[in-house]
Specification:
Blueprint (H helix, E strand, L loop, with lengths): L3 E5 L2 E3 L5 H8 L6 E6 L4 E7 L5 E7 L5 E5 L3 H12 L12 E2 L13
Antiparallel strand pairs: 1-2, 1-3, 3-4, 4-5, 5-6, 6-7
Length: 113
């Protein structure tokens, strides 16, 4: 895919050899997170542990209009997201129920004069 940066609560780290054990360690604690950011095109994937076993994953594919999130996913799902994303693949987008995070496409409300 090109150059990207992996960030955790401890700071920037190198790309892991295997995503699943790395993510299990980083997301195994409440508020643990991992972000993989492509520095060039404003695209990234990230996952966070919100505690009580709730994992959330998110991706932004270049613009605010393409910013999505999936809640209560499994660690295997998160690993698949990260593995595909760093390879430049996007089939993960068809495998989950994603919710867009912004309302950029919605028309502004009309204001009364």
């Amino acid at each position: 895919m090109g150059r990207f940066v992996v960030t955790t609560a401890a700071g920037s780290v190198g790309e892991p050899e295997r995503w699943l054990p790395f993510l299990a360690r980083e997301l195994g604690v409440a508020e643990g997170f991992v972000v993989v950011d492509s520095e060039a095109d404003h695209s990234y994937v990230q996952a966070r542990n919100y505690g009580a076993g709730v994992l959330v994953m998110e991706y932004r594919d270049g613009s605010p209009q393409r910013h999505f999130q999936a809640w209560d996913v499994g660690l295997d799902d998160v690993a698949e997201l990260f593995e595909q994303w760093v390879r430049g693949e996007r089939s993960f987008a068809d495998q989950h129920e994603w919710h867009r995070l912004t309302d950029w496409d919605d028309p502004p409300e009309q204001q009364a004069l």
